[in-house]
Amino acid sequence: MFEIDPNSQANLTEIATEHVHLDLAVDFAGTKLEGTAVYRLVALLPTQEVVLDTAHLKLGGARLKLIDGSLVPLEIDTNSIHEIYGTALRVLLPEPVAAGDKLTIEVDYETSPDSGAIQFLTPEQTLGKSHPYLFTQCEEIHARSLLPCQDSPSVKISYSANVRVPKPLTALMSAIATGSRNEGNSTVFSFEQQTTIPSYLIALVVGNLASAKISDRCAVWSEPENIDACAWEFAEMETILQTAEDVISPYLWGRYDLLVLPPSFPYGGMENPCLTFVTPTLLAGDRSLTDVIAHEIAHSWSGNL
Q1: To the nearest whole percent, how much of the chain has pLDDT over 70?
Q2: pLDDT digits over 103-153, tens only?
Q3: Which helix (H) or strand (E) holds 242?
Q4: CB-CB contact of 144 with 151 (8 Å)
Q5: How far apart are the first and last CA of the chain?
Q6: What is the pLDDT of residue 4?
Q7: Are 135 and 261 in contact (CB under 8 A)?
Q8: C-alpha distances in Å from residue 65, one per residue of 69, 73, 74, 103, 203
Q9: Are 221 and 209 in contact (CB under 8 A)?
Q10: At what angle do helices 237-247 and 291-298 cross, to 10 degrees?
């Protein structure tokens, strides 16, 4: 494909994704995620296929969801493989769609240990040394190894998710948490991101996590072993956010939370919507490095919207 974005094999001129719903289970023993992605799509031009970017994914069945809720199995083609950009997932529709038509398809898949987006940590790589951990980093073009998607910033989507994790772990995403429920030895966490974002801003973290409230819309998350230090270090989050609003415009994302990752986290920070990821090296003990938070908050307007 490559007509709009030289880094994507998706048919971006023909189909646009409007919303993705993820129903995923986290398998720490297998170092993988598995489940289903449901796509709400709109045709931009007449076409008879949906082409999604993938990388290092094991792909299962695909289905077209009809208006009455019934499902029609779809043929898929994964023969287009690029050394850098991964495997194009071609989902063949039973009949052509016209410009403006809307459709919903489902794809079953699982990730692999080779996923560039997902980092699984052993307990020894965490601060607490007791539980496994995972985090994602989809920027720049790694979202395609987290889920089949139109992995291009030219496409902005809303998304929702149900994520099943083993107890006592907690899941967070770059979205608003909408609830959780118990299922045996697992907990299912639900999320909703109503503001449209590019695929590289989809983010997930699972671990032994605690939170400290900073304000009605701000909290800091980390492993329990350093939550008090994190809460003190980033106590000015709400003040920084209010200052940004005074300079720019009202904050539109609902919540601004901060996640301090384990010591083995290899990045400085990532501006995931609603949940900025930062390195624990910012815990200087004197708040001298919290200007990084101002930088990440600024992305809520410049870059993320």
Answers
A1: 99
A2: 999 999 999 999 999 999 999 999 999 999 999 999 999 999 999 999 999
A3: helix 237-247
A4: yes
A5: 26
A6: 87
A7: yes
A8: 6, 9, 10, 7, 26
A9: yes
A10: 50
